[in-house]
Amino acid sequence: xxxxxxxxxxxxxxxxxxxxxxxxxxxxxxxxxxxxxxxxxxxxxxxxxxxxxxxxxxxxxxxxxxxxxxxxxxxxxxxxxxxxxxxxxxxxxxxxxxxxxxxxxxxxxxxxxxxxxxxxxxxxxxxxxxxxxxxxxxxxxxxxxxxxxxxxxxxxxxxxxxxxxxxxxxxxxxxxxxxxxxxxxxxxxxxxxxxxxxxxxxxxxxxxxxxxxxxxxxxxxxxxxxxxxxxxxxxxxxxxxxxxxxxxxxxxx
Length: 253
What we know:
Elements: E1 22-24, H1 28-53, E2 57-58, E3 72-73, H2 90-118, H3 120-125, H4 134-145, H5 160-183, H6 186-191, H7 194-199, H8 202-230, H9 232-241, E4 243-245
Antiparallel strand pairs: 1-4, 2-3
């Protein structure tokens, strides 16, 4: 959900020692998809909560009704200020949800094709063998826990935790949301009956859809916290203009 990074170009900013201090960090396609998704995901979460309020219980399998045992039940549902529409309107919420689901699906497919074509997927999202070594993973985890973020040119590249989290969202979480959502449609079940087999029934698909949405909320919260801790001005500016000022190396700071 984030960046395509390129090496510093000769025309980039330089510091007093003629070393590159700024890079073009985000391509236009990445920036557009990021901000489009920010709107789409928020609308889908809020409309999805209104849909959930129509029956705030989750089940496993094919069937689920008021007298069936549920694995999750919210007695009062979600508050109106957190839903679209803000007052109970199942039909309206479904229209909002479906409309923005099309935007999410099409934009995600286009973004993946662009990422495959320009090398972003291979270069920035797929981990290298040495990066998934336990020692490397543990060191990166400890650095994040101590708020020791990359500096210098290393800050212009994904670390392994970013690769794993962004790759999981783009390649696993968003497809799971789309496919589980389609499984809840009787028309799609008739056209693609393999969806029911894939998710183990329509009610299982609804539960998985809810779990994936909760994981998306968790990802967004962690993402925002990391942006704030890493320096929001530099991070947000780079997602608007594409230009990112490299933090000085620790020995130079």
